[in-house]
Amino acid sequence: MSSDELRQLVIQRARERCEYCLMPQKASTIPYQIDHIISKQHGGTDNDSNLALCCPVCNRYKGPNVATLEPTTGTFVGFFNPRQHVWLDHFRIETGVITGLTPQGQATVTIFRLNEPVRVTERLNLINLGLYVTD
Known about the structure:
Layout: H1 3-13, E1 33-36, E2 51-54, H2 56-62, E3 67-69, E4 76-78, H3 87-90, E5 91-94, E6 97-100, H4 103-111, H5 117-128
Antiparallel strand pairs: 1-2, 3-4, 5-6
């Protein structure tokens, strides 16, 4: 499969939205990026099973990380993995705010800064326009 074909597969599979925050690509003037869920430096591959469509904001905060320390226990918690997890099992959205329902969801909300005020406002505007969907 060519790199263009692989990119198109990832975009179509994601329904043209960030697989972490669900922001639609059409709401951005900046093209979304193909993210290595597990970065190459941590042994990740270029296989489609390790790739996700990612908005620039989520990609910037995620970086090459795959996990974070849980503040109360100090244990490592992996981030939400769009190839292994179902978004609605890990997150809930209410009034534009995304809440993590699981340790993975909570870690992702925190490290990816999903609820920065500007992101919540943008999400609310898109919800009101019917352009932000979680299914």
